[in-house]
Amino acid sequence: MKLHRLAASIAVFTLVLAGCDSSSAVSSELKTPAQKASYGIGLSMGKNLSEEGMDDLDSQAVALGIEDALKKRDQRINDDDLMEAFSFLQARAQERMSALNDETKQAGAAYLVENAKRDEVLTTDSGLQYEVLKKAEGAKPAVTDVVSVHYQGTLIDGSVFDSSIERGQPVEFPVGGVIPGWVEGLQLMSVGEKYKFYIPSDLAYGAQSPTPAIPANSALVFEVELLAIAGQPETEQVEQVEQVEQVEQVEQVEEDASEPAEIIEE
Fold first, then answer.
1. How much is the pTM?
2. Which domains, ranges and CATH numbers included, belong to the chain?
3. Sequential DSSP letters for 37-85
């Protein structure tokens, strides 16, 4: 966690509280706009600090610091001691996050080992695991194609972090513009098929945490339905075209059979 992020959070909090009277600042009632805004900023600041591994800060000491600043009292701790304390908390938060990241990676690896033992799960050379939920005979996308998909993403504990299905709106994107596990998995699929991807962390977001809902080093699970490839007809349209072609072929055969045979003279 960056020290200036904590300082900036408190500075914004102080500016908002400075516009409130003293009773609003200390009241536990959340009725006025100022009280609600003050609570919202405190809530946001607390969430951010907790996500950074600083979830054991003394909230009363934080409030005391804000109150001293607002009332222009002398600070109770000198700047050198404050910087030393900040550095300690930063180092401790980094140690905690590193330990948590290691635990997440180990849990994901153990999950994938067990998952690979299931007969319906296939594993590629890269380590991507996938399961075919619905078969189809559509076209397969290339890495340069743009595809339309429905998907739902979960952590290995089943927690949903993203879902186009819940939003009720398919998503379009270039095959080559997503995480490596998706790039590889999509090219295995045919239009109309539905797969389940089990993606190791190094084929997902690795040591990065793209959102608070996805911890760093997470193995991810996606259910993906490939709806269409941009510029190509969807599965239902292909089937309709094939049916029309088959009917036309049958009609042509019947027409040919009804015509008299030609006599070839030697």
1. 0.61
2. 3-76 (no CATH), 122-234 (3.10.50.40)
3. HHHHHHHHHHHHHHHTT-TT--HHHHHHHHHHHHTTPPPSS-HHHHHHH
